[in-house]
DNA sequence: CTGATCTACAACCATTTGGTTGTAGATTAT
DNA sequence: ATAATCTACAACCAAATGGTTGTAGATCAG
């Protein structure tokens, strides 16, 4: 294990936040440039309050941060969190490799006798 | 884009399936070796039916498959789906790099004059 | 100062989620 | 044949989710 900087419930929040297309879209837009909550909200066929809630979910998952600028809140994506999520899935793929290695070892031992 | 073999709702299901520690645990165990639903269920402090539902969620997300063997159902993890999830997050990280490149290009153009 | 804009947040509602228990069908073991 | 095991699935329930509208506080523009 290398990536376990995240508790189980943080991982829960992280993947849950990513499990909604509106939220993923917000993350992509926040990666690409700076946006206020209201400018983001203008893009979606739902109320400002609904988008505000989505941003809050992303914020609790540390996928974005908000920074007050005048009367606006600027939403920025958090690169590190996306990296951690990817690394988590990398770990899963690593388990497969370990399993394959383990099986290969056993086969090698068999042929040693 | 390279990874878009998945529809938005499939991605929803995929991340939603990963957003639960019991389900992630089941995936890890299914990666490591073969398990029936009931042998998996024995590990968790919840009913068999609850675990059965978790497996169903993983199955709908294509994270695992079930194969009938006698009266048991063997649960196997689907390596390809985990890879797709990781690649999706890779794409996000790629957007950051593209943004950085774009900014670098603009700075280069500025200094060309 | 007044009005427009941006945000925060509460209250409400329908649907989904994650758990339960209970019943029933298949398969295996005695 | 009977009993035990494994699975499927329905019905139910509390809590969370994802949306709404409405109200109110800050900030900016005229």
What do you see in this structure?
The structure is a homodimer of 113-residue chains. The first copy, chain A, is an alpha+beta fold. Chain A has one domain (8-112): Winged helix-like DNA-binding domain superfamily/Winged helix DNA-binding domain (Arc Repressor Mutant, subunit A). Chain A is 66% helix and 12% strand. Chain A has five helices and three strands; from the N terminus they run ααβααββα. The first copy, chain A, has helices at residues 8-18, 21-32, 37-41, 48-60, 79-112, and strands at residues 35-36, 64-69, 72-77. In chain A, strands 1-3-2 form a three-stranded antiparallel sheet. In chain A, β2 (64-69) and β3 (72-77) form a beta hairpin. The longest helix of chain A has 34 residues, at 79-112. The first copy, chain A, is elongated, with a radius of gyration of 20 Å. The two termini of chain A are 34 Å apart. Chains A and B meet through α1, α2 and α5 of A and α1, α2 and α5 of B. Chains A, B: It comes from Arthrobacter subterraneus. Chains A, B: Residues 3-97 form the HTH arsR-type domain.
Computed over alpha carbons, the radius of gyration of chain A is 20 Å
Kindly give the count of domains of chain A. Answer: 1
Beta-sheet strand percentage of chain A? 5-15%
The secondary-structure element order of chain A is HHEHHEEH
By CATH reckoning, the class of chain A would read Mainly Alpha
Let me know the largest β-sheet of chain A. 3 strands, antiparallel
Helical segment tally of chain A?
Answer: 5
CATH architecture of chain A: Orthogonal Bundle
> What's the arrangement of strands in the largest beta sheet of chain A?
1-3-2
- State the share of residues found in helices of chain A, binned by percent: 55-70%
Biggest interchain interface, per-side counts: A-B, 31 and 30 residues
Gap from first CA to last CA of chain A: 34 Å
Oligomeric state of the chains present here: homodimer
CATH topology of chain A: Arc Repressor Mutant, subunit A
List low-confidence stretches of chain A. none
Mean of pLDDT of chain A: 92
- Give the strand tally of chain A: 3
C-alpha geometry of chain A: elongated
Organism (chains A, B): Arthrobacter subterraneus
InterPro entries (chains A, B): ArsR-like_HTH (IPR011991), HTH_ArsR_DNA-bd_dom (IPR001845), WH-like_DNA-bd_sf (IPR036388), WH_DNA-bd_sf (IPR036390)
Domain HTH arsR-type (chains A, B): 3-97
Protein name (chains A, B): DNA-binding transcriptional regulator, ArsR family
